[in-house]
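Q: Got a minute? One more chain.
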Amino acid sequence: VPAQATSIYSRIWCIYEAFLAVDLGKTIFTASSPITHRLRYSMLAALMISAFSWTLGFLCALYVFPDVCATELAFFAAGLPLVLAIFSFWVIRRPCISAAMNVIGTAAIMFITGIYVRKRFFLCGHGRPEFVWIIGSCCYFFANEIDRLQSLSRSDEAKRLRQGYVGVHDAAASVEEDRRRILGEIGGRDVDVDESIRVLVESGMSTESLRRAAKQGTDLRQAGELRWGLMTIGALSYLLTADICDRNPSFLQIVDIVSLPVLGFAWVRSQHDEKAFMATMSVKLTLIALLSSLPIACWRFVRWMNAGQPDEDMRDIDLSVLDDLWERAYESLVETVYGSLEAGVPLSAMFSILGRGRLAEIPCLGPWLVQALGP
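A: Always. Here it is, folded:
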């Protein structure tokens, strides 16, 4: 429990508790202050921004898109939330910028939603049902705001735990005999105890896995934070990918039948810090797979178009042939992207089974992987 004036680890008995955790391989948690007060104001602001942006989009639909019935809003529904979510993911450790991104993301998504509602129900009478995904994207920014408030609270607690901490041998005690006896029991393991307390301060908890990773020199700041925003965007990405590629589900079924139960089992058996690692790792692997597959997918798309493009005058071409060509090229692009995304599922399962600690102990590559894929 972080104290207001000085760190509890300036006292020898708290140092002794940290030593017992190291000696017995136990877990230490930092007591977290509730964020109810801050959360109430943030959610009220989010609802007001959502209502205002939705109303503005509804009223200004014809000013933004004069020919709204011919405008394909599904492009904005897919691309806009993805770009905003990726950017907010990059600034996740900067609370002020993250708050601004949550406001911008919520406002932009609800503005487009207002335009869609007017198009679908009041002007044109039609609209793609896939647009419902944009509402799920808005939930990501709500969850990301909760994560931001929790991160601010934990950062304040870490600052208080760090204040006044002077190490094992300089810890204070009301009874000097107790101090000498505890230091004698700790013996030469004072470095391990100091490291365990450092891990606790940086990540909000100290587990066997985190201590093993810390020995390899990995950065464990916020390593114990389970971010609901990442879990939301991970679930939405997986479901959206499955929906887009439902025309050929055989590969999806083979991979998922094996990998998803393994991931579920690892999740249930894992401690809080490992769940945080799994959530962050799965999203980062998805983004890496997506970004690395796009150049290959675009190349295959262009190759399909060039291979099937006739040399005669475009006015003499049967439009059905061009439509078929575009469809095949699009299928080739989707298969490439989807194959890369599905390759991340077994990797997530394998890394989840290993855990952060064992993964960090892989020579040369391990610490880099934990650093790159962790929070």
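A: The CA atoms of residues 203 and 309 lie 57 Å apart.
Q: Perfect, thanks.
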